[in-house]
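User: quick one, fold this
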Amino acid sequence: MSPEDTTSRRAPRNWWGPFAPIGEALRFLTILPIPGLPPMSEEAIPQSIRYFPIAGLVIGCMIAAVGWGAGMLWNETVRAVVLVVAWGVLTAGMHLDGLSDTFDGVMSWRSRERKLEIMRDSRIGVMGALALAAVLGLKAAFLAGAGDAWLTAVVLAPVLGRWADVYGIVRFPPAREGGLGRTFQSYLRPGDFASASVATLALALIVGGAGGLIALALVWMVTHLLGRWWTRDLGGLTGDTYGALCEIAEVVALATLTLSAPMRLLAT
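Assistant:
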């Protein structure tokens, strides 16, 4: 066998074909082992951005399966806690880490340069810990009191959270040269945001009905306001702020989709 044949046999195969960006999005956003993809590259992740909401749907469905199993064994409060833990584990806490770093920085009331330095520090401060506690506590509280609406909320919230990431990447400038935001924007194509938004709009309507559309509108409003605030303070957004946008968007989605009677009537 020639060296060329050996190299060809050992070369990674792309089993995903034209759907490789979806697999890449799942590999980047979760701890799932994704076989059949070529090695991760600087170009591959940004090119998968348009599929972040689809990856969010997969995440939501997997969390929902965990919640269904937990609900067979324990009460709604325990199920809610299990859901939040599974949520964090499945995503490797990536967005939670960005949330804590962001609030340690933006709530320090220091100079722009010092805030960015604080956000790069791996240690967690008081404001970061408070942000984590607030987000995790609110997620568990909303799901514990959601009744039958928990399933819709868990499936749709990760979709809207990852759409918030896409919006932040497209709408606001990166804060640093050479950072994750700059890398993402350099590979984005004009139709990427449109594709992600159409998919998200369709999923919001199919999964959540009118309530899903209201949740998407509120997620957009909160994401835009936070993006403006952090752009003013930091000069743009960073990988950490993308994580924070996702986590806060998920909380907004859960808060909306688990509202009592009025929202459930709209959803039907």
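User: anything notable?
Assistant: The chain has one domain: 20-29+49-267.
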